[in-house]
Design brief:
Strands 1-2 form a two-stranded antiparallel sheet. A two-stranded antiparallel sheet has the order 3-5. Strands 4-12 form a two-stranded antiparallel sheet. Helices cover 40% and strands 7% of the residues. Helix 4 runs parallel beside helix 8 (134-159), helix 8 packs antiparallel against helix 9 and helix 13 packs antiparallel against helix 15 (446-461). The chain has 18 helices and twelve strands.
Length: 522
């Protein structure tokens, strides 16, 4: 089975040089995992290697939270498009929903998640047998379970039923690696189990240099998101809305109606969520960690959203907003969904760049008669103010789950379970007020509250690798999927229900006799 074979190859990242610190790997020798896992240091390095595929990158490599989720996922949605600098045919076909089971980006997402799961399974097997500090061992095993849950959570949402592998596999014959898909309900059950067990042993926080590792609060917050997802489409197990509310309240502070004591809160300034200077702050529950100019572990999203040709900036304008027609405006985009007083808009986008070389401003005017002086908005969340000519190595982290999203999870689940209660309003208004918006109108129906929350969620977490996951799970008041209608609104008229799941990569099917293609892709 190719996914397992590739995972074995990528294990070289571990066995040829596991991480000496949280963010870097230093090759020293070529040994097997059986020979490697002997000491406490080996155990720490092994867990660091599981984190590695969250953020590793380079000029020719993309990993899930280092651009791959944009080129291989978000561009299929309604907020982003490949810009002039994005010439890869697999990216451009995905953006117009013309992709197939041979699409390279769809394969890379699959392969890299299973490579990380392989590392987690090896670590869980080998670390248990090493004799060292019991408390640290318990924590490391909890980190491995948290990460395995996160990787499977992504896979099951994108592909549906997938092979569930939870043991270290070391076989001689390639045929032994073949494994059939497990029902998504079983995959979710494993995700829940891993997160529950992780929450029991992970610490509430870390001191340097371990800041950024998975915490107890992160495990609980991610579990709340898992419950919300299971209660949504396609599983539609609505009893989990109450579970999402309860789990979110274990993390929310007392001020926000919870019992959590983790110190989480919203930044007063929305822009601080994304700036390198304030990363791993009070709003960040769990993030993919990045360093600038650090052995390929800088955030490579930075230059992709910068206008090409600005002196002193190495932008290639590969990622841009999706334009669509709205009335007379042929250049409508998510940028124009924000109210002018919404503080999130100017933290999320810029409409011009100032050259660090000559001080001049550079913009891209739009030939839009409906909006005089209309200019192209550029995504700005991954910007590193310390980057000038070396913009390929941003130090900006990627928030995988943050406190604002947890408030939105709480508000959505509470509304679905009990209607728009005071609790639901309070959590949503916390997010709106930070954005400079007034409280949501009182007396809304459940459907009206849902629509308002969906919009605020979209505006709050845009360009954070969240939109596609929301598109495939959200529903209207009748319980029907809004996936197709949302994509049709932005001009993707070929969108169909089949696109809610990715096809299983053809190369995986070719190498695994037990693996079947998703039904609508056959």
């Amino acid at each position: 089975m190719r996914l397992i074979i590739y995972s074995t190859l990528t294990l070289l990242l571990l066995i040829t040089g596991a991480c000496k610190d949280f963010l870097s790997e230093d090759p020293e020798s070529l040994i097997s995992e059986d020979q490697y896992y002997k000491t406490q240091a080996d155990a720490i390095n092994g867990i660091n290697a599981v984190y590695f595929l969250l953020n590793s990158g380079g000029s020719s490599v993309q990993t899930p939270y280092n651009t791959l989720f944009n080129t291989g996922m978000n561009m299929a949605g309604d907020d982003e498009d490949p810009g002039p600098g994005a010439t890869n045919p697999d990216v451009r076909s995905l953006a117009v929903l013309a992709h197939s089971s041979t699409n390279l980006r769809i394969y890379e997402i699959w392969q890299q998640h299973y490579a990380a799961i392989k590392k987690a399974n090896v670590a869980l097997d080998k670390i248990s047998a090493i004799d060292f500090d019991a408390s640290l061992k318990s924590r490391l095993l909890g980190e491995a379970k948290f990460l395995r849950a996160l990787y499977y959570f992504n896979l099951v949402r994108l592909y549906g039923d997938v092979p569930l592998i939870t043991e270290y596999q070391k076989y001689v014959n390639a045929a032994d690696y073949a494994i059939a898909k497990s029902p998504s309900t079983e995959v979710y059950a494993q995700i829940e189990k891993d997160l529950q067990e992780a929450a029991e042993v992970l610490p509430a926080s870390y001191a340097a240099p371990d800041v950024g590792r998975a915490t107890q609060g992160a495990a609980k917050a991610l579990l709340a998101k898992v419950y919300l997802t299971k209660a949504s489409l396609p599983l539609n197990i609505t009893a989990h809305y109450a579970d999402a509310v309860a789990k979110a309240e274990e993390v929310l502070s007392a001020t926000d109606g919870g019992t959590g004591n983790y110190g989480y809160d919203l930044f007063a300034n929305y822009a601080d969520v994304f700036l390198p200077a304030t990363k791993n702050g009070k709003e960040h529950i769990f993030s993919a960690q990045f360093k600038s100019n650090a052995q390929g572990q800088g955030n490579n999203e930075n230059p992709r959203t910068i206008l090409s040709g600005v002196p002193g900036l190495s932008g290639n304008y590969a990622h841009m907003v999706r334009y669509y027609t709205n009335g007379d405006d042929k250049y409508f985009s998510i940028y124009k969904l924000y109210k002018p007083n919404d503080k999130r808009r100017n933290a999320t986008f810029v409409t011009y760049f100032t050259s660090p070389s000559n001080g001049k401003k550079y913009a891209l005017p739009l030939a839009n008669t409906a909006v005089p002086n209309d200019s192209a908005p550029f995504y700005h969340k991954m910007w590193d103010p310390n980057s000038t000519s070396v913009t390929s190595e941003s130090a900006a982290n990627v928030a995988i789950i943050r406190y604002a999203e947890l408030l939105l999870i709480h508000a959505e689940a509470e509304n679905e379970a009990n209607g728009p209660t005071a609790k639901a309003y309070k959590s949503l208004n916390r997010v709106r007020n930070r954005a400079g918006l007034a409280n949501l109108t009182e007396g809304l129906t459940k459907d009206q509250f849902r629509d308002s929350l969906y919009l605020d969620r979209r505006l709050e977490v845009v360009f954070e690798y969240q939109r596609w996951f929301d598109l495939i799970r959200q529903k209207d008041g009748a319980g029907n999927s809004t996936f197709v209608s949302n994509l049709h609104k932005v001009g993707k008229t070929n969108a169909a229900d089949k696109h809610r799941l990715y096809p299983i990569p053809q190369s995986e099917i070719d190498n695994n006799a037990l693996l079947e293609q998703n039904e609508l892709w056959k």
